[in-house]
Amino acid sequence: KTTQQSVSNKSKQIVLPFWCNIVAWFLVLASVLVSGLFLVFYAMDWGRDKSQEWLAAFFLSTFQSVLIIQPLKVLAIGLVISVIMRKDYDAMKMDLVRRSSNTCMNSRKKKRTNELLKKARKTKVDLILSLILLVLLYCICYGNLDPVTYNLHKSIKIHLGVDKLSMVSTFDKYYEYLRTTLITALYSSDLPQLVNNLSQSQESSFISDLAGYRLSRVTVRQLRIRPVDVHRLAPPGGVHFSEEVRDTGCYRPGWRELRVCNYSETQSALELAFVDLPAKLTDSIDYWGRLKSYSGGGFTAVLPNGANRTMELLTELQRFNWLDNYTRLAIVEMDLFYPV
Question: Which stretches are annotated as coiled coil (predicted)?
Fold first, then answer.
């Protein structure tokens, strides 16, 4: 019977003649050749660049359709068919299904509850450790903070006339600030009878408020750019400071000519002011400005002890144009001690 059924099924099948295969292959090849012919014609009409862009768009759209759009269509159709053609549970099996589903739900809830508890405990521990760290940082930062420090800092800035620097716009005004404000604030000429028993070096180290004590010499340090780079790159004043254009030479007073660098202590303060000194010799550190940082060292004018000699040195520096258009930073450095 099975053989008779298979024979009858085969007899019922419709078989096309052999020449249909030839026609089908001819249609496939013709469609490919015609499409390629039109592509060649369009490429000749569009040009090379436009043809390459069109081919790139064609391949991208093809891969997008094959890899993204068609799989999403299949997935969407499968979901729709599964929702429409789904089969309900049998009434006899509903109780068993409910029990198994409840068991699975309970086990999942327990696992999820345990995971949430672990996460909550970990978060709680992290919060406690963070609070402890904040308390320790607060104790370290503000434990030894003296409330008088702010007022002392403000008083020193007022005494040194730091606010007057905002009105300095020329080199002459800067020298005027050094003479009339800073030097009179740092050097005390008339000491009261309270310090008459001190030695001359100790007396000269007190500043004019008689509360601060200078632990180091007062220095005026400047950083410059090389004149060669200014003439090569831009007019004077137009080149910003950088380590590549920093002037590290040694000159004679007045920036007249280069000479052999000699860091001998026997040189006068005026001659030493025209010599670029490294940061180790000047005990200077980097200075952070508004836009960039400036390294230590540079051309340093070491001010002597005593207001009169300091005034004379500043006069000589101004006469020899120590500050000029090639100066990019001028900073006063000192170490002050205030007993609290």
Answer: none
